[in-house]
């Protein structure tokens, strides 16, 4: 790290960076892809030759993100776009500090958090207890949760059709579960918020409400990153877009410019490979990933 | 000022790498996903204490929430366990010979041993079984094994309530020495948490360990004097080498079990305890607790990755 605290010239006018990615490479290692996977001798071989060449042990390397650099500033909402498997979610996980980088560094202000609490919730417990459990898991103090409890329940709309919050979560419909999860996750003020296709949960009314909530969180806190395949929700929420393709940062700029270029790019693909493109076009809103 | 970037993207007009690191330093940004220092880690863990207790209680209540009898199983399960052991060891194998108050002796042994056994077993899966949680949220990972041990401690308190009932039913009088159960349990909890953290780290890297642990634990149970008296065995085999005797007596599981028996059962005398028993109990707790915690922390940034 540089010790450049006496740097003059960059006065107060310099915007505050919240996330800095500095030449980031991310490589996945997948175990046991070599020939004879699963056989006892292959497994034994892997254990015995652990320190030897990875290839011999049947480890395959997947270079998911290649030399990506960007600086995100306070108050920005940044969209991440790209075709499936282009490394968007991987990059997000690395920003959150949940995946190691192979090369380069990611610097962050505070702790970026993925908008996701579902893993901490237990379907056998009531919605009420899950609000507390989820809040505590995100690191909210108990008093904060108590203060915001009513707000969370009202926002989720769980109690609109009766007293459901005191029932176990397993009795909820999947839409209700998703709404409660989003409401819990959105209750905390985040320095840097990372959202992975969270906006496509719930019905139209709830989607509008969550888009509003995201906008609100952005004003309160630092920076929002949004991964989405829905061009309209990117246009609605973000003013800057990073376009990843095959793990490389292809474009970084204002939403309109990048989106136009991206649409042109995917349009190009459509004329070249018609059947595949039609399949994609038939499914405009991708299913929500399990991150909420 | 956007531009289409042809690879590599760092050829962008933006600042080169050195400047990015400098920019980060100037604004006090920290490297993402780095392991905190040990004091920091302890502070973070303390800040999450409410999560640890809430997670433990939630796991405990969720356990029987689908059963018709509900939380009654918290007490029923340990009682049924004790009944099975009594039938096999007390009635069929007659290990009760020469042990006064065999029922409380056995039940105490089973409950105290189950505490250690389940803590270690759930600790082994604490990370590997909660990989979704670890990958989604940020918290000191030691919260998981500790929380599982706390769940087992709560479970044990239910069992202890049943045990008190059994003690009174078979005519063991309440005594001041029952208070000794509290420090004994506390030390055992620290020991369990320490061993759990060690196995949580091992199990996170090599999930196969979870398959192996039941066998290790069962062997450990049979040499720990859960259903027979170590003291009786040793007095019968006075020709055994000293190291074997010491080993049997220093076994942490045996130490904690005998301490609890000494605290609760009036016919279990101090002479049956291993020498320096409190020193052993504290020593094991400190060794496992501190050692396990540091060992676990050393791999903090690797959990849930790869």
Automatic annotation (TrEMBL), chain A:
SUPFAM superfamilies on file: P-loop containing nucleoside triphosphate hydrolases (SSF52540)
GO CC, alphabetical: membrane
Molecular-function GO term, any one: ATP binding
Bias kind Basic residues: ranges: 271-282
Region of interest (Disordered), residue spans: 262-292
Keyword Cell cycle included in the entry's annotation: no
Pfam families linked: ABC_tran
Residues annotated as domain ABC transporter: 48-271
Similarity field: Belongs to the ABC transporter superfamily.
Cited PANTHER family: TEICHOIC ACIDS EXPORT ATP-BINDING PROTEIN TAGH
Protein name: Teichoic acid ABC transporter ATP-binding protein
Native source organism of the sequence: Streptomyces griseoruber
From TrEMBL, chain B:
Xref: PROSITE patterns: ABC_TM2
UniProt xrefs under PANTHER family: INNER MEMBRANE TRANSPORT PERMEASE, TRANSPORT PERMEASE PROTEIN
Name of the featured protein: Transport permease protein
Keyword match S-adenosyl-L-methionine: no
Broad class of the protein's primary localization: membrane
Membrane protein topology class: Multi-pass membrane protein
Compartment(s) where it occurs, according to its Swiss-Prot or TrEMBL record: Cell inner membrane; Cell membrane
UniProt keyword annotations, A-Z: Cell inner membrane, Cell membrane, Membrane, Transmembrane, Transmembrane helix, Transport
Database matches in InterPro entries: ABC2_TM, ABC2_TM_bact-type
GO molecular function, one term: ABC-type transporter activity
Domain (ABC transmembrane type-2) ranges: 69-299
GO terms for biological process, alphabetical: lipopolysaccharide transport
Coiled coil (residue ranges): none
CC annotations in GO: plasma membrane
Ranges annotated as spanning the membrane: 72-93, 156-172, 178-200, 212-230, 277-297
Family: Belongs to the ABC-2 integral membrane protein family.
Record flagged with keyword Aminoacyl-tRNA synthetase: no
Entry superkingdom: Bacteria
């Amino acid at each position: 790290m540089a010790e450049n605290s006496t740097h003059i010239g960059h006065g107060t006018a310099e915007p505050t960076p919240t996330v800095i990615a500095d030449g980031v490479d991310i490589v996945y290692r997948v175990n046991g892809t070599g020939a004879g996977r699963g056989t006892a001798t292959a497994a034994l071989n892997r254990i015995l030759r652990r320190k030897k060449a990875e290839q011999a042990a049947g480890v395959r390397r997947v270079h998911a993100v290649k030399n990506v650099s960007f600086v995100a500033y306070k108050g920005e909402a940044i969209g991440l776009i790209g075709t499936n498997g282009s490394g968007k979610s991987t990059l997000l996980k690395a920003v959150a500090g949940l995946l190691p980088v192979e090369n380069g560094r990611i610097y962050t202000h505070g702790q970026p958090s993925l908008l996701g609490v579902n893993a901490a919730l237990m379907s056998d417990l009531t919605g009420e207890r899950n609000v507390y459990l989820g809040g505590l898991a995100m690191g909210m103090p108990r008093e904060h949760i108590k203060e915001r409890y009513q707000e969370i329940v009202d926002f989720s709309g769980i109690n609109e059709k009766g007293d459901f919050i005191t029932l176990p979560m397993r009795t909820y419909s999947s839409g209700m579960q998703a709404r409660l999860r989003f409401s819990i996750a959105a209750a905390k003020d985040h320095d840097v918020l990372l959202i992975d296709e969270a906006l496509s949960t719930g019905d139209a009314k709830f989607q509008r409400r969550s888009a509003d909530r995201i906008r609100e969180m952005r004003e309160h806190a630092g920076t929002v990153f949004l991964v989405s395949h829905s061009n309209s929700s990117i246009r609605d929420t973000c003013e800057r877009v990073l376009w990843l393709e095959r793990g490389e940062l292809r474009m970084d700029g204002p939403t309109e410019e990048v989106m136009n270029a991206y649409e042109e790019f995917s349009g190009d693909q459509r004329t070249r490979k018609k059947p595949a493109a039609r399949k994609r076009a038939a499914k405009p809103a991708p299913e929500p990933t399990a991150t909420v | 000022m956007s531009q289409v970037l042809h690879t590599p993207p760092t050829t962008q007009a933006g600042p080169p790498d050195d400047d990015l690191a400098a920019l980060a330093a100037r604004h006090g940004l920290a490297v993402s996903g780095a392991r905190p220092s040990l004091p920091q880690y302890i502070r973070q863990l303390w800040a999450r204490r409410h999560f640890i207790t809430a997670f433990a209680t939630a796991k405990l209540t969720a356990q029987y929430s689908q059963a018709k009898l509900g939380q009654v199983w918290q007490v029923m399960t340990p009682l049924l366990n004790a009944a099975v052991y009594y039938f096999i060891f007390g009635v069929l194998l007659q290990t009760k010979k020469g042990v006064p108050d065999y029922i409380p002796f056995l039940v105490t042994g089973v409950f105290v041993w189950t505490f250690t056994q389940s803590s270690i077993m759930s600790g082994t899966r604490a990370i590997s079984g909660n990989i979704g949680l670890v990958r989604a949220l940020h918290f000191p990972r030691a919260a998981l094994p500790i929380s599982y041990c706390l769940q087992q401690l709560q479970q044990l308190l239910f069992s202890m309530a049943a045990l008190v009932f059994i003690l009174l039913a078979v005519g063991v009088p309440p005594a001041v020495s029952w208070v000794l159960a509290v420090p004994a349990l506390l030390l055992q909890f620290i020991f369990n948490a320490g061993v759990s953290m060690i196995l949580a780290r091992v199990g996170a890297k090599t999930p196969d360990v979870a398959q192996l642990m039941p066998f290790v634990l069962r062997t450990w149970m049979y040499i720990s004097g859960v259903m027979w008296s170590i003291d009786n065995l040793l007095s019968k085999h006075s020709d055994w080498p000293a190291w074997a005797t010491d080993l049997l007596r220093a076994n942490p599981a045996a130490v904690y079990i005998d301490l609890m028996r000494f605290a609760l059962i009036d016919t279990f005398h101090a002479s049956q305890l291993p020498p320096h028993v409190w020193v052993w109990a504290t020593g094991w707790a400190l060794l496992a607790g501190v050692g396990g915690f540091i060992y676990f922390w050393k791999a903090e940034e690797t959990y849930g990755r790869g």
